[in-house]
Design brief:
By secondary structure, this protein is mainly α. The protein has helices at residues 2-14, 30-54, 61-67, 70-86, 96-110, 116-131, 157-167, 171-207, 211-215, 224-254, 267-275, 296-299, 305-318, 326-331, 366-384, 399-410, 413-418, 429-444, 447-461, 470-482, 499-506; strands at 265-266, 333-335, 348-352, 355-360, 484-485. The chain binds 2-acetamido-2-deoxy-beta-D-glucopyranose (2 copies). Disulfide bonds join 345-361.
Length: 514
Amino acid sequence: MLWQIFGFLIISVVTSNTVTDAAATNQVDPKQFVADASTRYYKLYNQIAEETYSSTDDEDFNTIFTKLATVKRIAAELVQISEEASEYNLESIRDVQVKAALQNLRRVGELFVLGEEYFSSVLINFAALKELSTDKDIEPYLGGANMKDQDDSPLAYYPDIQKIFQQSNDSDELKYYWESWREKNLVWSSINFYTIIEAFQNAAKILDMSVLEFWFRCYNNKEFLKEMDKVMEDIKPAYKQLHAFIRNELHKKYGGSVVNPRGPIPDHLFQQVREQAWQANSVIEPYFSKASLPPYDTFVAHFEPRSMIDAAENFYKSLGLTELPSEFFDKQLKEQDESAESGDCRADIFDLTPYVYMKYCKKVEFRKFLQTHGYLGRVHYAREKRNLPSYFFPSYDLEYPVGEAVILSASTPKHLQTIGLSKDFQFTEPILMNRLFRMGIHTMLNIPLYFVHTKVMNDLLNGTVEIERINKHYWELMEKYAGVEPPSDRPENAIDFPYSFYLDMEENHQTKYV
Ligand SMILES: *[C@@H]1O[C@H](CO)[C@@H](O)[C@H](O)[C@H]1NC(C)=O
Ligand SMILES: *[C@@H]1O[C@H](CO)[C@@H](O)[C@H](O)[C@H]1NC(C)=O
């Protein structure tokens, strides 16, 4: 995402300039130029990171970042670098690596053809899409009759409505929130979404690049959609079994008028099952009760918020990774203020590889403990990149999967026992099954959703589907890959993407589903 922001800042700064088709008379040796450019980049990243981090503002890093005046100055310098890169004649360069680096550096420069409007519009549209989930503008169900003290104040999707999905077993209530949130946001989500798509299409056209390639430009793997498709095939047999089990349980619980025992699962109930994977009272409760899960939160109750981070860091050290320097703990790590504590309270991560700045949540609970392992994966990964040239910094690589893999290992009974967190607890067979089944629900049911989100964007940008049909296409994919349908007939103009779609669109939130 930051790469995109830089891209668009660059655009804004240089529209008035013209590219000098400079005859390179006293041009620096290309290899030297690439090395210098890398160092210059690095310094600029540092400045931005430090300034954002040292802001006393309690907003999230990205919001602070968009307000910094110096960002524009720094962007101008980045533009300078890319302009200089464009001056090299690629034909005459033999060294493959240098050539690739120059091409990379050039591409950044090419973005400025878009003009200021796109820069300001795309940034604002992305921010607006995210805000749709935090604006408190949804009337509570039945005027607040189900709320504590019959409170009728309006609710936000996040965290209020999400919490209701974790607790409610009332299908009508969930359906009401599912529909109201989409209805409330219909106009703004479409405007913001369409504007972003249009901006990307225009940018790609000017750059003479396919819009698909432009959209996925940070990914190193060009075949990843194909590979995801293969994964979908691989998990299909297991997924179908799990789906059938859940559908049957939902049918027993809510009856045939709500859940067709042979059809797709209505989305509001599918969401409920996912949200309740670790809660009591879900459809799995009769088989695996919440009460018989290990007392996970008591395992970590003795921790201070900060010492959870140290414990997670020990895991990475035990893998043989270089210890994080004291500089990270002193200068790049901050505690969130109290206001962040409501709701899920995720860490705020500002990724300026090779630096990662982090505001962590003060809640001490097992889930946070695991999420911390994921965050540190990102920090380590970014740090390991510090010895690479900076044009590798923005590419998405393995930081998310590495974080997830570490989370899986760190949560095993064996590990918890080894580090002394679950000393007196006996992980019996039924308890292990309980844990595994809940993990299965939580993980397996989310995979098709990730895939559908990626495929929707892919098909739209590749022109496989017209923008007017995007919602229909979304539901076709949801039915095909997830076995899920909307809870009611949808209006022609609806855009029914969930909140997580916009998050996925903007950036990968690694531990979102933990
Ligand atoms: C929902 O939960 C309440 C209390 O836990 C219970 O009395 C009720 O029967 C449940 N309703 C359904 C549809 O399962
Ligand atoms: C894009 O669309 C073309 C045809 O319209 C198709 O052949 C190609 O496979 C698509 N590419 C991707 C990555 O979806």
